[in-house]
Design goal:
heterotrimer, A alpha/beta (258), B mainly alpha (220), C mainly alpha (420), A: 258 residues, alpha/beta, Rossmann fold, six-stranded mixed sheet, 10 helices, 36% helix, C: mainly alpha, MetI-like fold, 3 domains, three-stranded antiparallel sheet, 18 helices, 66% helix
Chain lengths: 258, 220, 420
């Protein structure tokens, strides 16, 4: 495993094993995710990359039969310790899903919901600012600034996804997890989101699960390849796509097996 | 390459490309031999055949360029497939240059002077043989995707350069003896020089074969 | 069978199926139409009331009023005799029996009607006014055409003499039909022409109100808890099975529960809308819990995930996102459950909302009847006048049900638009 010694790891997973009932989904996953970088997780369907992603913000807790072994450290602190407040964790680690899922509320309320339940804005003026900033950062402000009262579900697919990104960054997280954020979008909407990810990485640490290898090659600095629940190889994106160490990695990215 | 691509037509395209390079390489090999033969036998008739062969080599170059463009556009190759495409492009470039050099040599055929010491041609003949051997080995190395053969060719390039230096020195000596040998001696110089340059191109071909297999260029 | 034949058979089967559907729907519509037609044609006449025009002179001496501004005098004046004496003058009679028969043509309420008129029009003291007084039930039914005249006199409720008076009045233009406001404003009465379902309407209203206020919050809370927070184990499975069973329990059982527990143990006031409401609430609870749970189950997980990912706690996710999304279905279920409760008769009979209640209830703590109970009571009575009133009450009930179901549709649409 390669270590970039000039950057500190933001997230470290140590011997993470995940079980759905009796079925094991992840086997001894050890990897590091570095600050202010985009890390891509690739691999065939069912390889466990989404399961791993959901360990980082403990969304797997929602599934009753899911059990997790091992540690996931964020800034050196194991988030699976007893007594960890999951709500506070998710303030720090945001998530964007495969199918855009804006709340059935207005665009304004979509963004304002997070800050309001965490008590981030003290008054309406501050809230307005947060909403505007989030939408600007998500490259959506110009398109919706005149219709903030309209329902979020009335936007196009690409706009909805950017709305979800704006919603995620409205509470100022440190890490943003993206689970195949572009798979439901057309190429132009996808390109806009990739551009957005590029600009966001200076402020956030981003982990993206993607089915598209070309997307992983374009947007990420480091890439991890998963297969059947194991992390096969992890390294600099350029190295992985130009000359990977592991034959299985090469076979997957060149399309020699699915 | 361990397995086949899921998409069979991809494998077919790569196979056709491979064959094209092998064929272009064989053609270049035989052109080199023909060119040396023609020079030593002073066979002016052979020149037009040689020129035609070189044209065929150039056609191969165009075809290979097109094939590689298509693979890049269609398949967005990565890792070993990408290295293969780039190497194939460079190798065909080098083969074309070798063909040009061999053709250029053949065009320089002149009748042998009467007082020509036979050792002079020996030097050139030997150089030509070594260069032919290098080209053959490099083609074998490409077909077998052999790292060891590529490294041997690269190492032997030193010998090619040495032989060329010797042959050039002999030609210069011959030139200094009698001014009337100027034309012939000049041609000798050019032929030797071209053979040395052909050797450089062959060495470069093997560096690209090494890169294709290992993912990096060989250390100097 | 080749392709062509198979295709033909398929088309035929489809046509047959369509035909079955049309027949079934037509049959259903036919029966509904029959019911509505019968009820409406029977009940239509209840909305009008036959009045007899009687010239009344408010003679101060006869009334015994010396000072018009004296409240007591005006209140206690003898309107009975005033009207009696002047009414019997409207037709010749020859003996006591006939005299009694004349006055029997008026509803016994006539003194109050005259008094009410006078109280509103005190300036008519000493003047003659053409007063409209309510006719008796038999007279009313006769005028509405429900009275067979061609049967022997002994079997009739009106004598030939009385029929003669009717014909005479009719010729003199003394008979009028007006809109029967008594139907809505008055409570039950032994006299059909004076009876109204005003009491029953309020009784139903109060009991449904109590039912709603008790059952909705409890049912919603139970559904939310069971669906979102309770652990999935044998105990919760048992609870779910029992709730489903409770929804199927005959409503009369709840009446027994109301009788045994609410009336006997807690000694709550009998016949009141409060007790009725509580009993109905017990019955309606499972009927709201079930659609509420189904609606909650139907909320897509993406909504929950979106809320959780932004850092909402489980409770916040449920109450800010899941419950509002489930509201259309829950409200539909609630209003349908309430509509069913509105039509319940058996449990209310058992807890006593079957009393003969004349006064309109002012609060859920006053004794009252409910609309379906009123239908039951009136359908038992012999008088012809109650037949039309029974049907009119059924019309009222149906009207209420339509309004409530429309409310369900409206509320559902409004919520769907708002939240989706």
């Amino acid at each position: 495993m390669e270590l970039k010694s000039n950057k500190e790891p933001k997230v470290i997973s140590k011997n993470v094993n995940v079980f759905y009932g009796h079925k094991q989904a992840l086997f001894d996953v050890n990897l590091e995710i570095f600050k202010n970088e985009v890390t891509a997780l690739i691999g065939p369907s069912g390889c466990g990359k989404s399961t791993f992603l959901r360990c980082i913000n403990r969304m797997n807790d929602v599934i009753e039969i899911c059990k997790i072994d091992g540690e996931v450290e964020i800034d050196g602190f194991n988030i699976y310790n007893k007594g960890v407040d999951v709500v506070r964790l998710r303030e720090k680690v945001g998530m964007v899903f495969q199918k855009p899922n804006p709340f059935p509320k207005s665009i304004y309320d979509n963004i304002a919901y997070g800050p309001s339940i965490h008590g981030i804005a003290k008054n309406k003026v501050e809230m307005d600012e947060i909403v505007e900033t989030s939408l600007i950062r998500a490259a959506l402000w110009n398109e919706v600034k005149d219709r903030l009262d309209e329902p979020g579900t009335g936007l196009s697919g690409g706009q909805q996804q950017r709305l979800c990104i704006a919603r995620a960054i409205s509470i100022n997280p440190e890490i943003i997890l993206m689970d195949e954020p572009c798979s439901a979008l057309d190429p132009i909407a996808t390109a806009k989101i990739e551009e957005l990810i590029d600009s966001l990485k200076t402020s956030f640490t981003i982990v993206i699960v993607t089915h598209s290898m070309s997307q992983a090659a374009r947007v990420s600095q480091r890439t991890g390849f998963f297969h059947l629940g194991k992390l096969i190889e992890m390294g600099d994106t350029e190295k992985i796509f130009k000359n990977p160490n592991n034959t299985m990695t090469q076979d997957y990215i060149t399309g020699r097996f699915g | 390459m361990s397995e086949e691509h899921i998409v069979k037509s991809y494998d077919e395209e790569l196979q056709i490309l491979n064959n094209s390079i092998v064929q272009m390489g064989s053609l270049t090999e035989s052109l080199l031999i023909d060119s040396m033969d023609a020079i030593i036998k002073v066979d002016k008739e052979a020149v037009s055949k040689i020129v035609k062969k070189d044209e065929e080599i150039n056609k191969f170059r165009s075809s290979i360029d097109q094939q590689i463009m298509t693979i890049l556009v269609k398949r967005s190759p990565v890792a070993i497939d990408l290295r293969y495409a780039i190497s194939a492009l460079k190798i065909s470039q080098d083969l074309e240059r070798i063909g040009d050099l061999a053709k250029g040599n053949a065009k320089k055929i002149l009748p042998l002077p009467d007082d020509l010491p036979p050792e002079i041609l020996n030097g050139m003949r030997r150089l030509g043989e070594v260069v032919q051997k290098q080209l053959k080995k490099s083609l074998d190395s490409f077909i077998e995707k052999s790292v060891s053969k590529s490294l041997e060719v690269i190492k032997n390039d030193g010998q090619v350069n040495d032989l060329a230096t010797v042959s050039i020195k002999e030609a210069l000596v011959f030139l200094s003896k009698d001014k009337k040998n100027l034309d012939f001696a000049t041609n000798l110089l050019f032929v030797n020089k071209n053979l040395e340059r052909a050797g450089d191109h062959i060495s470069r071909i093997c560096q690209n074969i090494y890169y294709l297999i290992e993912g990096d260029y060989p250390k100097k | 069978m080749n392709k062509e034949q198979r295709r033909k058979k398929r088309y035929q089967a489809e046509k047959r199926f369509q035909a079955y559907g049309i027949v079934a729907i037509s049959l259903a519509l036919f029966f509904v139409g029959l019911l509505v037609f019968k009820v409406f044609s029977d009940g239509r006449s209840a909305f009008s009331r036959t009045m007899i025009k009687v010239p009344i002179t408010f003679d101060a001496d006869k009334l015994g009023i010396t000072n018009i501004n004296d409240k007591d005098e005006v209140e206690n004046a003898d309107y009975f005799t005033l009207v009696y004496e002047q009414f019997i003058k409207s037709y010749p009679y020859s003996n006591d029996k006939e005299e009694k028969q004349i006055i029997k043509l008026l509803s016994p309420d006539y003194e109050f009607e005259a008094k009410n008129y006078f109280l509103k029009n005190k300036d008519k003291l000493g003047k003659t006014v053409s007063l409209l007084l309510t006719a008796s039930d038999d007279f009313d039914q006769l005028h509405k055409g429900n009275f067979p005249r061609n049967i022997p006199e002994e079997r009739r409720r009106l004598s030939n003499y009385q029929l003669g008076i009717y014909d005479q009045f009719l010729k003199e233009g003394k008979i009028e039909k007006i809109f029967n406001n008594y139907l809505f404003s008055k409570g039950d009465s032994r006299d059909p022409e004076l009876a109204g379902f005003g009491g029953a309407i309020l009784g139903s209203f109060f009991s449904i109100l109590v039912c709603l206020l008790i059952s909705f919050p409890i049912a919603l809370a139970a559904a939310v808890y069971l669906e979102e927070f309770a652990p999935k184990n044998k105990l919760t499975d048992l609870i779910e099975i029992n709730i489903n069973n409770l929804a199927a329990v005959p409503s009369i059982v709840f009446g027994l529960l109301g009788l045994g527990v609410l009336l006997n143990v807690f000694e709550l006031p009998r016949s009141t809308a409060l007790v009725g409401g509580i009993t109905l609430a017990l019955m309606t609870l499972p009927r709201i819990i079930i659609p509420a749970r189904a609606s909650l189950k139907a909320v897509p997980p993406s909504i929950r995930e979106g809320a959780l990912a932004v850092g909402a706690s489980r409770v916040q996710t449920v109450f800010h996102h899941v419950v509002p999304h489930a509201m259309p279905g829950t409200l539909s279920g609630t209003i349908i459950g309430l509509a069913q409760a509105l039509g319940e008769t058996a449990p209310l009979l058992l807890i006593g909302m079957v009393a003969f209640v004349v006064e309109i209830p002012g609060s859920p703590l006053d004794p009252s009847a409910s609309l379906p109970v009123q239908v039951y009571l009136w359908s038992e009575s012999a008088e012809r006048g109650f037949v039309e009133k029974t049907s009119a009450t059924i019309m009222m009930l149906l009207g209420f049900l339509i309004v409530m179901n429309s409310l369900a549709v409206y509320a559902r649409q409004k919520f769907e638009r708002k939240w989706n």
